[in-house]
Structures are given as structure tokens and as C-alpha cells.
Specification:
Layout lengths: L2 H18 L6 E3 L20 H17 L1 H4 L10 H7 L26 H9 L7 H4 L16 E9 L8 H11 L2 E5 L4 E2 L3 E2 L11 E9 L11 E5 L11 E5 L13 E9 L4 E3 L8 E3 L4 E7 L4 E10 L4 E12 L2 E13 L3 E13 L4 E8 L4 E4 L2 E4 L7 E4 L8 E4 L5 E3 H4 L4 E2 L1 E7 L13 E3 L3 E5 L8 E7 L4 E4 L4 E6 L5 E11 L2 E2 L6 E6 L10 E4 L3 E5 L6 E4 L7 E5 L6 E10 L5 E11 L13 E3 L7 E4 L9 E5 L5 E5 L8 E4 L7 E9 L2 E9 L2
Parallel strand pairs: 5-8, 25-32, 33-38
Antiparallel strand pairs: 1-6, 2-9, 2-16, 3-6, 3-9, 4-5, 6-7, 7-8, 10-24, 11-18, 12-17, 12-21, 13-16, 13-24, 14-15, 14-17, 18-23, 19-20, 21-22, 26-29, 27-30, 28-29, 30-31, 30-32, 34-36, 35-37, 37-38, 39-40, 40-43, 41-42, 41-44, 44-45
Helix pairs in contact: 2-4
Amino acid sequence: MNPLGILYFIVAISISSLIYGQTLPQSYDLRNVNGVNLVTSVKSQQGGTCWTHGAMAAIEGNLKITGNWTTTGETGEPNLAEYHLDWWNGFNQNNNDDANPNTGSGLSVHNGGDYRVTAAYLARGEGAVRDIDAQNFNAAPARFDTSYHYFYPRNIEWYMAQEDLSRINTIKQKIIDYGVLGTCMCVGYWHSGNIHYQPPTSTVEPNHAVAIIGWDDNKATPAKAPGAWLVKNSWGTSWGDSGYFWISYYDKHCGQEPQMGAVSFQNVERLQYSKIYYHDYHGWRDEMQNVTEAFNTFNAEGTETIEALSFFTACDSVSYEAIVFDTIINNQLFDTLTKISGFISHTGFHTIDLNQTFVITPNERFHVYLKLSDGGLPIDKTSYVPVLLGSPAKTLVTSRAKPNQSFYRGSGNSWYDLYNFDSTANFCMKALGNQYLPIEPKKPMGDTLLCNPILSSYFTNTIKTCNNYNWQLSPMSAGTILGNDTSINIVWNNTFEGTATIAVSGININGIGEASEGLQIKVVKLQKPELGNDTLIKASQCISLLGDSVDLKNMWSTGDSTNNLYLCGSDLNIGANTLWLQVTDSSNCHAVDTIIISVIDDTGLFESQFDQLGLFPNPASNNCTILLSKNFNHIDELWILNLNNSVVFSTTQIEINDNRIQLSNLNLENGIYHIFIKSGERIRVVKLVVVR
């Protein structure tokens, strides 16, 4: 290499390091990402179907990198039907729904297409389908079949590295994030070492589609500087390096061609929509450059829930606002059904989930409005489609439109029917949803072990909205269900013990759906321990508390686990002491009893007989009333303790009306509590059970 060449090489390497940055690796291979292969097997195409193989290689790669292939129940590696796309893309002589007749015109089957053709086919929800569903080159497979598994890319993005490679890092990052990318090239510029490089000065158009699976910044090529894409071909494993080769970063078309450059199929999932409303059968064919607002009007075909919208953007960095209206009167839109806005970074196709879904009914009209900040509004129209075979010839593909389908805002802030501007054109906006049927709610949630239950609550979540719910308890004698919404209460029969099952089904205008998986509930009747009546002892006295049988686990509030507990007044505090015993059986069911031991010193500080208190209702929820004897003229203080002897409520502002104290809005959790009342030197305690 001469000195000038060496200098240029050094400068190119320096520029490269600035372009590539420090956050991306100098080389990357999706076949080995931390020991995992994220590329599907090399295929061997038939006919001129390279464009279908480039697209499916990218879609399969995304299914591998996300794991969505296996999470939807598929086995083996992702394997999709290139020839179903080849036959049923809607642009060819086999079929075009917009043409009359629908056969005989357009592209030749097995003889070309591109990634925009692929995007139209995918956006309509007609594919991709599995190889085992509809892979047939020699004859058209069935277009639709209930046995097919459809896979849908929620986003498709187009990138260009630019001649100065200023945006090459975007492409690299998308490979890391989303996997294999589709691209194109012009076959014929081969060099040793399985390297391809078509100089930018060449005028020959692309004639082949392939898939990018990695890169190497230091790969030497005949180009002006090093750097090349690692590429998967569709000519079998006996060609190239087991089916792979390299294309220079500076190639004329690879990663550079606007419609075929670098295309990422992202967030591919099993198609979750049973209905897609659209007028743009052929997707993005052109743009209305000076239009920023438009809407499509659709007529509902059934009772359906609209859950998402989709549309194309024709440039990078676009803000959008999408609104669905229910009514149009005098050329004005009214009654917003849902609204969403956001920002889209890259050119392409985008599926946007709605924050608020809505239900449409048969023959109801609804209107999908879209406003884009830049790039104009993409449209479908009759257009010449380039054939990816290197020929300058283009094929006319017919599109069809009708009046009152697509409208745009024009001069005077008025709406104009796009049909009057171009009778073959529609805006590229779609509404996606599902038939509105009773949907099986999720399995009820709540406690599955109940000990001596009085009341318990259960709830369910549903993917779709139901008008109502139908809960079932089996056996019915186990208890009574209160309510029929997403949550309910069960009042348990105090004689029931054993296993009960609770399930729920959704109800709407179409009837009752299937019941959810039942939740098994074990109800245990555990006899609580009996510690006896509250008692009074002197500090010098002792007392023995009897626990339960050896078949149960005992746990005392003192931390002891013996069957019997021996205590003396000197072990306790002067005043009221709350002690409890919890017993646990083999199913981990608990039962508790409490006793209050009041200790007086040997001088008899407290009277041995306390005035009696009444409490009702008991059990209570938020409110209860304490009935006092006539000896209580005033109350100094009232406090409530839980079983851990923690004060959960206290007050000195106590009103006595007709020998009663009203307690309201206690907001206590379910459980057992003790209410202490102090009047002068006298203290009285009453037990409260809270059931909410």
C-alpha cells in the first residue's frame, strides 16, 4: 500500500471509531450471543422468492430473541411459510382483492416483491403462518384456515445507514435489541472470501434480498475502508460459508436502499386480534405530503371490542395523535370513544394499544382520526411496484377505494373525501379488535385455607370487559355468595367443614361464557382453646392456664410452647394483662383464645368486683356501642389493644349518652381486640370481635 493509501486507512479507522462509538462491540454475531443461537436455519429458496425468505428470516429471528415462539406453545425453532406470503400477498396475478377480476394482473408469482409488500400482508393479519400450515411452492396453499397459527409483528421499522455511515449504530443497536434484519443487494459484485461489495457509483438496481445477522468493524473488503455486515442467504448451506457471507458497509444498496435497506420486524407475537378494519389493502404506497390530519370511517360488522390502532409513518421522529369518534354530523366529528398520543422514532408500521378500549355493534359507524407531525399521511393507491429482480420495469398493481371511506383536512379547515382526489386511494389507518363475547375470567383469587370462617372475600381479573359475572360455590350448602361483580363475599355456613370450589363466568349481551378454573378452598373447623373467664389475682398469687391437647401446636403470648402455662402475679404488671394462646393443627389452621388477668398489689388497690359492660353488635364491623352500668358517671380514658398488646386506638374525648358510648369508624382489621375503659381507679375490659 502506498503512503497515501496508508494515511487514508488510518483516517478511515479514526472516523470509524467516532461513528461506531464505544458502547457497541466491534463485532457481533447473532448465532452466538452468550452461547445462544438467535438465527434460524439457512433455507434454500425456489424461484424468485428471496424477498419472502429475507422477511421470514427476520421475523423468525425476532421470535427467537423474544422467546415468543415457545411461549405460545410452539416447538423446535421458528419456521414460517415463505410461499404463503409469495402466493397471497395481494399484489400478484394469483390474487388481488382490489382488482376485478381478482386474478390475472399484478406481480408474477415466484418472481419478485419487497418488504412493503410483506408489510401490507402482515398488517392485514393474513400472515405470517407456520411452515407446517401452508408451505407449498408448486400450488397455492389455502389462503385461510382455522388450523393456521398466525404471527403478527406489532412494529416494522426501516433504517438507512447513510453514505457517511452516520446512522450505522442505529442499525447495529436494532440487531442487538430485535434480532435479524432484512436487507437487499445486487448480485454480481463478489470478491474472494465470500465478500460482496457493489461500489456506490454503480447504477445497477438491487435484485436480491438477504438478512443481516451481525457485523465486523475490522473486516477487510475492497471498499475504501474496513467493516462489513454478516449476512444470511437463502441459497442453501452448500453455498458460501455454510450459507453465510459478508457485505461491505459501503455497499451500494445493503443497509442503504430506502424501501429495502435495513428492515426490522419487531415484537412479533401470535396474532391476538380476530378482526382488523382497514381500507388500505396494499398498505403504504405513497404519501399525501401536505396533509397532517385524516380519518377513516368504518362500519362495524359485529359486536366487537376495539383494542388497538395501526398506521404507517413516512419519516423518522414523528409525533402522533389518534382519536376514535362515534359520530360525524355536518362534516364534523363528535363523541370521542378513545384517544391516544405519543412519539415514534423511526419510519415504518406501528401498532398502538388503546388505553381505553370500546365496544362497537353491528352496522355502527366509527371514525379513526390520525394527526402526524411530519412526513405527510401514507396512503394506498393504484401504483407501479418495483420488481426485485434488477429490472428497470415496474408492474402496475390496482388498488380500489369507495366514497366516504377516507377523508383529509384541507383548505379552510374543512374535510375532503380522498376519493374525489384519487378514486383508488385510502389512508393507511386500521382498527384492531376481537369479537365481544363472554370471556372466561381468570381463576378466582383469595385465601385457600379458612379456619372457622365467618366471612371471606374473593376476586377475579378479566382480559375483556363483561357486563356482569356469575359466581358458583360448590357445594352450595357451604355458604352464601354476596354480590356478582369482579369481587364477592362468601358468608360461610357455620356447620360446613371440608373442601369447597368457587368459579366465575362472564356475562354480556351474548350470554354466559365458560366458567373459570375453580379455586379449591379448604374449610377447617378448629375448636379454639378455652382459657376460662377473665380473673383477678394479687401480686403474690399464682395461676395455672390449661392449653390444648398434645395433637396441636401451642404458642403462648409469653413465647412458651407448653401445654400448660404457670404464672404468678409477680411475673405480670399491676393492672390488666392480656394473655393469649394460639393453637395450630396439621393444616396450619390457627385458633386463639384470650384471657385478661388483672393484678392488684397486696394492698388491694383495685376493687375485686368491677361493674359489668355490654357490647353490641359483637362481632362488629366499623361501629359498635358499649353499654355501661349506672355506676359509671364519667370515663377518663378508653383504649383498644390487639392480641399483641399493641394499642390500635385510644381517646380521652368520651361522650356518655344514656349510659352508652358510641364508637364509630374504627377501621380495624378482622380479628379479636380488647377494649379497656378507665374511670378513676377502676378499669374494665370487654372483648370485641371485628368482622368486615
